[in-house]
Amino acid sequence: MTISESSSPQLDDPLATRILREWQSQQGDLWVFGYGSLIWRPDLPFSECRRATIHGWHRALRMWSHVNRGTAQCPGLVFALLPGGSCRGLAFRVPAARVPDVFPQLWQREMPMPIYTPRWLNVNTTGGVVRALAFTLSRSHPAFTGALSDSDYQHIFRTARGIYGSTRDYAETTLAELHRLGIRDRALERIVKIARAGTIAS
């Protein structure tokens, strides 16, 4: 998600307060795990960025978007971090002194609506294991798409567009950046391939 999903940060959100307190208890910089648009548009004043892998979670284009990459009438898709498998992405380090200013922006971007479940996860990075904040999705949440067929993806890629552009552009930009970083995501490669085929066929 991005800032457009809400007009103001949910700074009075008890969950935001809890996450901040948990970070403070760790007594260090804030690490954030990026697996979707954070990879190519972090919008964070980070001091370090590392290649990173999370085990037990995987990147999936399985969350409905009614604003950024689609509309209520023609929903699009954005990435979610779902249980199972593994995910390669990037870990961003935000200096502790910057967190009070940065966290509201991050929360506004990722949590304007209570869809994601923020979690502290152990992330394997090129510089060792760090405890990072990651935004995950529960399969029980209405925003979870459930199973999508090839034709579903083709239709969504062909028709869904929101205020930040189309689902297709979002997925292809992410895939291109993953390739640039030397990260393979075969599931995403397959989705983009079949979606492109459906668009061409139409």
Number of strands: 7
Trace the largest sheet across and list its strands.
Answer: 1-3-2-4-5
Q: In CATH, what is the homologous superfamily?
A: Gamma-glutamyl cyclotransferase-like
Shape: globular
* Series of secondary-structure elements, N-terminal to C-terminal: HEHEEHEEHEEHH
Helix fraction bin: 25-40%
Distance between the ends: 29 Å
Number of helices: 6
Mean pLDDT: 91
Proportion of residues in extended strands? 25-35%
* Uncertain runs: 1-10
CATH architecture descriptor text: Roll
- Tell me the structural class: alpha+beta
Number of domains: 1
CATH topology: Hypothetical upf0131 protein ytfp
Largest sheet: 5 strands, antiparallel
Describe this structure in words.
It is built from six helices and seven strands. By secondary structure, it is of the alpha+beta class. The protein has a single domain, classed as Roll (Hypothetical upf0131 protein ytfp). Helix 4 packs across helix 6 (186-201). The longest helix has 16 residues, at 186-201. The protein is globular, with a radius of gyration of 17 Å. The chain starts with 13 loop residues before the first helix and ends with a helix.
SSE arrangement:
Elements: H1 14-26, E1 30-34, H2 37-40, E2 48-65, E3 76-94, H3 99-110, E4 117-125, E5 128-136, H4 150-159, E6 161-162, E7 165-166, H5 167-180, H6 186-201
Antiparallel strand pairs: 1-3, 2-3, 2-4, 4-5, 6-7
Helix pairs in contact: 4-6, 5-6
Describe the structure concisely for a colleague.
Helices cover 34% and strands 32% of the residues. It has 202 residues and is of the alpha+beta class. The radius of gyration is 17 Å and the shape is globular.
